[in-house]
UniProtKB/TrEMBL annotation:
It comes from Proteobacteria bacterium 228. The keyword Cytoplasm does not apply. This is Enoyl-CoA hydratase. SUPFAM superfamilies: ClpP/crotonase. It is found in: Peroxisome. Keywords: Isomerase, Peroxisome. One of its GO terms (molecular function) is delta(3)-delta(2)-enoyl-CoA isomerase activity.
Length: 251
C-alpha cells in the first residue's frame, strides 16, 4: 500500500486521506491501488461509511502526468489501475463522503460524482481540463455530468474545461455543503455520525436503490471512456500537451 495514502478504519468508518502534499496530492498508480484496496473493505458488514479527503491545501490536483506518460510510452497495463479504482468507488455498498479542500482537478472532480455526500471548503476549486490535455472525459463524466446539468453546461465543464468554485459547484449540485476550511473535517465527521446512527442495512439497501438502476451502465461507461482515454494518451495532441506541462513544471 502506498505511503502517500493514509487509511484508517475505526468504529465502522474507513478514512482514506491523500497524503502527497508536495505534489498537491497528484495520484500515482500506487495511490490508486491503495485506495482501491481500502474501498474493497467496505464489503465487510461492520463498515458503515467511507471518508475521502486530501491533506494540506489540496484534495487532489489530478493524475500524476509523469506516471501516465511513462505507462503510455511502454503501453503498460498500469492504465487499468485507475479504472479499477473508479469501479470500486462506483460499486461501494456503503455511503462515501468526500471532504474537498483546495484543488479538485480532473479525477478529483470526477470521483465526486460517485460519492454520496460532498463537502467543500469555501476555497475549493473544481476543474476537469481533459480536452485541454488532448484527452477525453473519464470517470463516467460523459454520462453523469450531462444527466446532472444538461448538455450545454456539460460542454462548458467537460470540453471548455471551465473551472468552478465551491459555491458554483453547490449551485450545480456537485457539492452538498460549503463550509470554511477549518470546519471542513468537523462537518464531514458530523455527516458520518448521522450516517452511523441510521440502521445499517436500510442504508445499504437505500443506496443500492438510488444507484442500482444504472449501475451496469455506469460500469460500462467507465470502461468505454477508459479505452478511449488510453488511446488519446498516444495522440500527438496529448503528447504535445504533456511536453508543455513538463516544461512549465520544470521552471
Amino acid at each position: 500500500m502506498s505511503d502517500q495514502i493514509s487509511v484508517s478504519r475505526e468504529a465502522g468508518i474507513i478514512r482514506i486521506q491523500l497524503n502527497r502534499p508536495d505534489k498537491k496530492n497528484a495520484l500515482t498508480f500506487a495511490m490508486y491501488q491503495a485506495m482501491t484496496s481500502a474501498l474493497l473493505q467496505a464489503a465487510d458488514e461492520d463498515v458503515r461509511a467511507v471518508l475521502i479527503s486530501g491533506c494540506a491545501d489540496s484534495f487532489t490536483s489530478g493524475n500524476d502526468i509523469g506516471d501516465f506518460v511513462a505507462a503510455a510510452s511502454r503501453d503498460s497495463d498500469d492504465i487499468r489501475i485507475p479504472l479499477d479504482f473508479l469501479q470500486a468507488l462506483a460499486a461501494c455498498p456503503v455511503p462515501v463522503v468526500a471532504a474537498v479542500n483546495g484543488l479538485a482537478i480532473g479525477i478529483g472532480t470526477s470521483l465526486l460524482l460517485h460519492c454520496d455526500y460532498v463537502l467543500a471548503s469555501n476555497g475549493a476549486r473544481l476543474q476537469m481540463p481533459f480536452v485541454r490535455l488532448g484527452l477525453v472525459p473519464e470517470g463516467c463524466t460523459s454520462l453523469l455530468i450531462p444527466q446532472l446539468l444538461g448538455q450545454r453546461l456539460a460542454f462548458e465543464l467537460l470540453v471548455l474545461g471551465t473551472g468552478i468554485d465551491a459555491e458554483r459547484a453547490a449551485q450545480l449540485g456537485i457539492v452538498n455543503q460549503v463550509v470554511s476550511a477549518e470546519q471542513l473535517l468537523p462537518a464531514a465527521e458530523t455527516v458520518l455520525e448521522q450516517i452511523c446512527q441510521l440502521p445499517p442495512q436500510a442504508v445499504r439497501l437505500s443506496k443500492h436503490m438510488l444507484k442500482g438502476a444504472q449501475a451496469d451502465t455506469v460500469s460500462a461507461v467507465i470502461e468505454s471512456e477508459g479505452q478511449l482515454f488510453k488511446q488519446r494518451l498516444f495522440s500527438r495532441e496529448a503528447q504535445a500537451a504533456f511536453a508543455a506541462f513538463a516544461q512549465r513544471s520544470a521552471k
